[in-house]
Amino acid sequence: MMMSSVKLTASSPFSSAFRSRKNNKLPNLQTRSQLSTLPTIQIAKQNLGHSPFFTHKPLHLSSSIVCQAYEADRSRPLEIEIPDEEVAKKLKMGLYFASWWSLNVVFNIYNKKVLNVFPYPWLTSTLSLAAGSLIMLISWATKVAEPPKVNLDFWKALLPVAVAHTIGHVAATVSMSKVAVSFTHIIKSGEPAFSVLVSRFLLGEAFPLPVYLSLLPIIGGCALSAVTELNFNMIGFMGAMISNMAFVFRNIFSKKGMKGMSVSGMNYYACLSILSLLILTPFAIAVEGPKLWAAGWQKALSQIGPNFIWWVAAQSVFYHLYNQVSYMSLDQISPLTFSIGNTMKRISVIVSSIIIFHTPVQPINALGAAIAILGTFLYSQAKQ
Fold it and tell me: How many C-beta atoms lie closer than 10 Å to residue 206's C-beta?
């Protein structure tokens, strides 16, 4: 900023020029350009010369000129706006959640497609774990992902978690082989009720009254949906219930056994998949067996063609991806936010499966699903 100030006093050439009566013109100054910044003043010819304003009081004229020039200031660093950390974190979590939900929807669609023509849920579950294990082993071998630093104590602590995870995974797949995807997920939205009941009666953990009250819409909504479900099947219903119970114990074992062990969410789930695969494989062979698998595989190929192979590969890969992203999300957010995200995930799966598979839904069935999901949301808020 530049300031230019001109001060006229009684003894200055400017004031004498104003008092001049000969020609009422300003004297010839050496630099006329200095006056170009002064405002235009109209001076009377005769009578203003005798005014006391000119004879007794000095005249102060001031003009301010603001000059703004673009010039690099080498003394100051270049300022660049950096996005706020909170904004970046929210964008990152939004990406995680969007990936989690979309991958889960894709998995459920292809999983149901496979089970419709290849009704062998034990082998289907095994292939899902095998694909994830293979992906992570290759990632560790090629240094795409940093291998976890684990010891024997880690695997001992992980064993009960893997057992519960295996039971929950197989039970959910069995359920989806018998009933609609939407029905399985409506029943699985009742998982918080199992969590509270197990924690209360087996672990002696007490909860505030709002938590218990939130269980009423969960249980009531699931019951209403089950009663009004058009393609109700007891095996499908029990599979979803067993899956709920197994995942509750998985979470309990995980919290108790994994304290103090620093393993990233991605590597934690990778180790869980490998151990679950080792547990599940012999049971899958015993329950179904290679003969049934071979016959069923040939039948599915004759009905669907080569696309069946793509369906199997897609359901296997997307199962691992959606679980991996969910565990990576759990690394970054609180359990409360994770439970809310899990509730929203169920909504996306239920709605998308109804649309894609044209599942018939009665109004009373939809109401039961809405009540159950609302209860799950209220539970997550009360747990806070």
Answer: 9
226: left (phi over 0), alpha (psi -120 to 50) or beta: alpha
Residues with Cβ < 8 Å from 180, sequence gap 6 or more? Answer: 229, 231, 353, 357, 359
Of 116, 161, 384, 138, nearest in space to 276 by CA:
161
Instruction: Give the residue extent of every domain in the chain.
Output: 101-383
Distances in whole angstroms, Cα of residue 211 to Cα of each of 16, 206, 241, 291, 338: 92, 10, 20, 49, 17
Find the helix or strand (DSSP H, E) in which 6 lies: strand 2-7
Say how far apart CA 326 and CA 292 lie, in whole Å.
34
List pLDDT tens digits, range 334-368.
Answer: 666 666 677 778 888 898 889 998 888 889 988 99
Overall pTM > 0.90: no
Helix (H, G, I), strand (E, B) or coil at 5: strand
Radius of gyration, CA atoms only, the chain: 39
Give the residue from 335, 344, 333, 323 showing the smallest Cα distance to 90.
Answer: 333
Cβ 147 vs Cβ 216: under 8 Å: no
Distance of CA 294 to the CA centre of its chain: 41
Neighbouring-strand partners of residue 325: none
- Of 103, 102, 122, 124, residue with least CA distance to 113: 124
